[in-house]
Design goal:
single chain; alpha+beta; five-stranded antiparallel β-sheet
């Protein structure tokens, strides 16, 4: 360093040791020019670096925006990007698809207006507040369900996504129906077991008890004893008939509900069938001191039906009418035709049914008012079988009643069933 300084000083010093001002100024000027040239080079290099950085940032930002656009366009969820002022910045095709196609969301649109367009009458501002708090919301848009959620971004903007959960809601509904059906089946099973344990035990106890007394000659072998044994035998026979009827009803209802009950559709003389049913119900009415009014045909009562099934329905309805009518009452069966079928009316002057029970009485093992039903025999399967057989014909059955005022059963049967099945009903 000292040698460089000494060298420079010798260049600006004369032979006599005096300072050469001109040489000094020239050296200073050269030094300034070199410094200025270096400064300009540095400035130029700095500018080039800044431009390169700007170009790199722009390219990176462009690539990021491009990737964002591609991600939005390919996303299955409906996504809308919002400015800090909650106006639309961008919306992907899925979001446009669920909006009004005549007026898709555009940049600058209010997000509250978009929500109001999706679900008219919705509290759009309330929904937005929920989204901004990080909550999820469910929206039903033209029959489809969407789950909405929002995410705040670092620059104050916001992304809102709506995922289509219609399939999930449908699966939940199906599972709910399946769960309800399972619970209903479980209740029905419990009700079935409780009812059957009573209905089976009562006649079986009678059969076992009376048969044991007869087999052991418990009352001796006198004439009086044999007369009692004959009464016991009749009780055994009656209990056996009850069990057969019970098992038949269970089998019939099971076949109806499983679709295994096959109808034999044929031309049916309804007046003749009704007379047969009235004849069969006669002894029950007579024992209960109930008057069965004579049947008077009105109009053309011809129809195509399964004769056995229709007869079973009429007998069940007549038996119910007689069973729930006090001594001295009456039961009347009438029928009339209309354009497409036949209407039968079975009216009684019995105990009647409360309005809230008019539909539930058609459920298996249900007998209307349980307090009243306990006084009467029966499993509660009759009306369930009646409805099942009637609906298999394409008909309907309903009840009109008031407690203490009697009941009227209304049976509508089409003259020509919608489906004709020419096959014997399984025994």
């Amino acid at each position: 360093m000292h040698r460089l300084l000494d060298y420079q000083l010798r260049k600006v010093t004369g032979t006599d040791g005096s300072l050469d001002v001109a040489a000094l100024l020239k050296m200073v000027e050269q030094s300034y020019e070199e410094t200025d040239r270096e400064r300009r080079l540095n400035v130029h290099a700095t500018k080039m670096m800044e431009e390169e950085l700007k170009a790199a940032n722009h390219q990176t930002k462009h690539r990021g925006e491009q990737r964002l656009v591609e991600a939005l366009e390919g996303a299955p969820s409906a996504i809308v990007l919002l400015t800090p002022l909650l106006t639309v910045q961008n919306a992907n095709p899925a979001m446009i698809a669920i909006c009004d196609t005549e007026k898709p969301p555009q940049s600058g649109d209010e997000f509250s207006a978009i929500l109001s367009g999706l679900v008219p009458g919705i509290d759009a501002n309330g929904i937005i507040r929920c989204l901004l708090r990080g909550e999820t919301v469910e929206l039903e848009v033209r029959g489809r369900w969407f789950l909405g959620a929002a995410r705040q971004l670092t620059d104050g903007s916001c992304a809102v996504a709506f995922s289509d959960v219609s399939a999930l809601k449908e699966r939940e509904a199906i599972l709910g129906l399946a769960r309800d059906a399972a619970e209903s089946a479980n209740r029905l099973k419990s009700k079935f077991l409780a009812t059957m344990s009573h209905e089976l035990r009562t006649p079986l106890n009678a059969i076992l008890g009376f048969s044991e007394m007869i087999s052991l000659a418990a009352l001796g072998k006198s004439e009086i004893a044999y007369a009692r044994y004959a009464d016991y035998a009749r009780s055994i026979h009656s209990s056996g008939q009850h069990l057969v009827a019970l098992v038949s009803d269970i089998l019939d209802l099971s076949k109806i509900e499983s679709g295994a009950y096959t109808l034999l559709i044929e031309s049916t003389d309804l007046p003749n069938l009704i007379e047969e049913a009235l004849t069969l119900a006669g002894p029950l009415a007579e024992s209960g001191k109930i008057r069965l009014l004579p049947f008077k045909p009105l109009g053309d009562l011809s129809l195509e039906a399964d004769r056995r099934a229709v007869k079973q329905v009429i007998i069940n309805l007549l038996s119910n009418a007689v069973k729930f009518t006090a001594p001295g009452g009456e039961v009347e069966l009438s029928a009339e035709s209309y354009a497409d079928g036949i209407i039968l009316y079975i009216r009684d002057t019995g105990v009647g049914i409360a309005t809230e029970n008019l539909e539930t009485v058609f459920e298996p093992f249900h007998q209307g008012d349980a307090k009243v039903a306990r006084r009467y025999e029966g499993t509660g399967l009759g009306l369930a079988i009646c409805r099942g057989l009637t609906e298999m014909h394409g008909g309907t059955i309903s009840l009109e009643s008031e407690p203490g005022e009697g009941t009227r059963a209304i049976l509508r049967l089409p003259r020509h069933p919608r489906v004709h099945v020419r096959a014997e009903c399984a025994a």
